[in-house]
């Protein structure tokens, strides 16, 4: 019996896709990677996932796990040799339980992030992970890449929001680690090892996640700021003035929002005149546990002082939830506007906040010197030092010509990141996009330890090969 026949016998023919039925799974969200799969399988339980892993192990067939297929580094796309089985976790989409006394929610890996947020809210709680793709990305993918998003400043990355995991190992065993404990000091932290491993060590099938009280009030504002240095100083003032109540702090270059309102006319900047032409904008959010009046007073005081000392030139404060959502929609539409404008060279980097202004200034200059006219599309989560530093076509340049420059652009940007004490991957993962970049910047001992871990947990090398680290 062939492996396809065995998979069909195991899962049912309807859940083993071949040929053209696999096309939507084998193209990544950015359209940069097109692979081929022996089959796409859609198991409906952790036990079925384990059986698929065991079967592939016996046949020596590689496995590529996939969640919502919204990744930006090709981490969930198979190679183009057609040898791998792509394992979709879309059918593992149940909320298994909510414990409001323990403030936890246990969900399967195929749950859409937005569905988890809604389930938490219905229980009177907040699940704070929030990112632009939340309507289509899955918890499994968030865990696989240790996703960040807009509220890392207060609540942390996905790893910080996770208490326990259920994982199918490379041997096809199930680790039942769905413990809702804040303290468990009984050995190595396997949970943190699997989170961020992009399916190269095992397949996460469920997770127990932290919940938080719903905030009593939220205040959101968009500020026009003159430069990155002012944005950094404004962040410092906001931290001092709001403390732990500061939920989000985003920084966006003016051309990012200009593209959004130009391409999506239904959206508007809440400014006119010179403020609308500001070179930079900051988006702040405060979550208050006392009252709307208390939140508003604190917000207006801190922002008023920032304008008085010149850190901001104008501010638009949302008056209601609709206006707040509109401000966040501007920010979250930047990647969509980028996609409308064509392919770009993307960077997801993190830096010490104190060095971000120098990094932007120096790296922009280096790129302009090497590639005159290259575009800079810079935005990200200033509050946690994460920038999406993207490069677009120079005027008159063809898309293919820009993409041909990617190796040199990567070298300039990543060398600059490294020189400023940063990391070349902050929240998008490594995937296949950056796998060959790691040896240039990762400590040799660190990289060797990663390879040993991969070999120990996946000795046959079948778990998402060609991603994160080479054997």
UniProtKB/TrEMBL annotation:
Boundaries of every FAD-binding PCMH-type domain copy: 33-214
Pfam (any one): FAD_binding_4
GO molecular function: catalytic activity; FAD binding
Alphabetized UniProt keyword annotations: FAD, Flavoprotein
Cofactor(s) essential for the protein: FAD
GO process terms (BP): respiratory electron transport chain
Database matches in PANTHER family: BLL6224 PROTEIN (PTHR43716:SF2), D-2-HYDROXYGLUTARATE DEHYDROGENASE, MITOCHONDRIAL (PTHR43716)
Family per record: Belongs to the FAD-binding oxidoreductase/transferase type 4 family.
Official protein name in the record: Hydroxyacid dehydrogenase
Species for this entry: Bordetella genomosp. 8
